[in-house]
Amino acid sequence: MTKYFGTYGIRGKLDMFTPEFALRMSSAFGEHIKGGKVLLGRDARLSGEMLEHAVIAGLLSSGCKVTNLGMVPLPTLEFEIKKLSAAGGVMITASHNPPEWNGLKFVDKNGIGVSREEGEGIERIFESGKCRKAEWNNLKKVEDYPTALEEHMDALRKTIERRHILKESPRVVLDCGNGVASLIAPKLFKEFGCRVTTLNAQLDGSFPGRNSEPTPQNLQELMKAVVALKADMGIAWDGDADRVIFIDEKGGYIYGDKSFALSVDIALRQRKGPVVTTVATSNAVVDVANERGGSIEYVKVGGPYLSRRAKELNAVIAGEEAGGVIWPEVHLGKDGFITSLRILERMCKDGRPFSSLIAEIPSYYNSKTKLECPADRKQAVLKKFRERVRGEGRINCMDGVRIDFDDSWVILRASGTENLMRIFAEARSQKKADELLRKYKRMVEQLI
Ligand code: MG
Questions:
Q1: Residues with Cβ–ion distance below 5 A, ligand 1
Q2: Same domain (yes/no): 221, 323
Q3: Is residue 116 part of a domain?
Q4: Is the pLDDT of residue 1 over 90?
């Protein structure tokens, strides 16, 4: 078990996430990758500048050279790692968490996030305090690199055809959530020929406009704006702009599994091949992949697992249900800008309302719950559950226990950070999903 690392990096409130902590952890990361050029970026949080100095000190002390991109979206940093042949990267961000939080996402030389397992190695160095210390006459420098945003945008301009969007000039409302999406989205979408209205597009680390996570509750203003302005689409990013959520022209919130399924459809029309997703993803994605001649490859829940498997398999696309999609043709991190431009391009090419594209994605209903369970009981509960459900359907134990039936499934997973077990059921009707959940919830309650 890791003490600090979650599915992608470390997050915490500032009482835990002090500059001292950031310095020592960055130094441990520098030791882990054995020095070299490290790219540094940060999101718009108020504590970002303070932590930036600490991270720089930690990296330099372990013999790394630092290339500072400044305030950038996470996908910009991940993209630049390959381009600049860096040994790794550090992003100072707490993704969609509240403004009083901050964190570190560590990235390897392939632009792939450091997973929980790799984080264990970094934690061991951190705990032991045994970091190489660069000699006084061998300390490396910090260089600023102000062109990262422009270079990332350039890659997007080259990847996505502008003519369809230019021809239709759709009206879009962009909700940047006062985060680093503001640095790219308004400019890029105007350039692509959209009629742009922005919400919360001023960088402000106190996130005055809305909470950073693009949930239905947090995007009420965007939904209203799309309807009031008769816009064709609303688009919202999370705090570090790797995830993106869409609103259709009727003001309806489109869940991430639907936009991912649509992305899979778009990608597989260009090239056939593997589609990587997590064991917690909707069958809507599986159906679309099967129909378009793709094959589904499951991984554990977490961005770094998606990226790593996508690289291994030379996958066409990878993604998860919360609105994070990887387009490996550009880089191996989730990129909310490519996702939004690709979907916009498809809408304009087809000349149809966004809602009608979404209506073609198969509909599934889900039901979920969580049960309290002591940390030391979690593995035993999973093991017993696996034995109990043997023969009930196709079993996948990659991450928790998933049971697949003909057109429905259930998964039991242990929370990585809290004393909880989570159960999720998906079926063709709400009634069926609720029934499945009730049945397995009872079983898990007994086991706990
Ligand atoms: Mg994020």
A1: 95, 238, 240, 242-243
A2: yes
A3: yes
A4: no
pLDDT of residue 361: 97
> Cα separation of 10 and 21, whole Å?
11
pLDDT of res. 307: 98
If DSSP codes are grouped into helix, strand and coil, which group holds residue 123? helix
Q: Contacts from 127-135 at CB under 8 Å and sequence distance 24+?
A: 129/24, 130/31, 131/27, 131/28, 131/30, 131/31, 131/61, 131/62, 132/30, 132/31, 132/35, 132/62, 132/63, 133/61, 133/62, 133/63, 134/60, 134/61, 134/62, 134/63
Among the listed residues 31, 78, 11, the one whose alpha carbon sits nearest the alpha carbon of residue 213: 11
Residues 53-62 have pLDDT tens digits of: 999 999 999 9
Q: How many domains does the chain have?
A: 3
2 pLDDT band (50/70/90 cuts)? confident
242 alpha carbon to ligand 1 midpoint, in Å?
A: 5
The pair of three-digit structure tokens given for residue 327, joined into one six-digit string: 């387009």
Question: Is 95 a residue of the active site?
Answer: yes
Does residue 289 sit in the same domain as residue 384? no
Q: Which of 61, 62, 95, 182 is catalytic?
A: 95
